[in-house]
Amino acid sequence: MPKYDINQLSTSHRKEFGRNIDITVFRLVRFMDLKKSVGKEHYEIVYEAGKKLGHELNPKTVEEVIIFCKDHKIGMLEIVGENPLQIRVNECICCNGLPECGETLCHFEGGLIAGCLEKIFNKKVQAIETHCAGLGDEFCQFELKIY
Ligand SMILES: [Zn+2]
Q1: In this predicted model, what pLDDT tens digit does every residue of 57-79 receive, in sequence order?
Q2: Can you tell me where the transmembrane regions are (predicted)?
Q3: Are 43 and 107 in contact (CB under 8 A)?
Q4: Angle at the Cα of 65 (from 25 to 52), degrees rounded to 5?
């Protein structure tokens, strides 16, 4: 797989479509059956991918993370709890509008938030999704365990 950096990945010369894609395309890629081809559950892989992106973004503040997620239409983040830290994702790119399926779906977003916070706090961070459209909620929410 080519090793493009975030700036290269952000570049597009598409005249008609620009940088936009339909959410269906994103979700088709996102929910591919990786277990069949890679032998690992997709949530393990996308969580790590999100975390790597968070590290590469190397944000200095939580505000930067909130702006990145809004600019890239990942979701509208808000801090809803301080101890433990809880971050809500409104209009989540991954799960908003999907029917309840009995499990959380937003492992990439969780990994991304954890990876960003690891850089900000210089500590290990684990994101645990507590709310999700997959569980029947109107929003996604993550509890952050900081070690
Ligand atoms: Zn979710």
Answers
A1: 999 999 999 999 999 999 999 99
A2: none
A3: yes
A4: 65
Per-residue model confidence (pLDDT) at position 45? 86
Bond before 59 cis per omega within 30 degrees: no
DSSP classification of residue 112:
H
- How far apart are alpha carbons 33 and 40 in whole angstroms? 9
**What pLDDT is attached to residue 137?**
97
Let me know the angle formed at the C-alpha of 31 by 115 and 116, rounded to the nearest 5 degrees. Answer: 10
pLDDT range class, residue 1, cuts 50, 70, 90: low
Domains in the chain with CATH codes: 6-146 (3.30.1380.20)
Ligand 1 ion: Cβ-proximal residues, 5 Å cutoff? 95, 105-106, 132, 140
Q: Which helix (H) or strand (E) holds 81?
A: strand 76-82
Any idea what DSSP says for residue 100?
P
Give me the amino acid identity at 83.
N
Task: Say how many Å lie between the CA of residue 109 and the centre of ligand 1.
Answer: 8
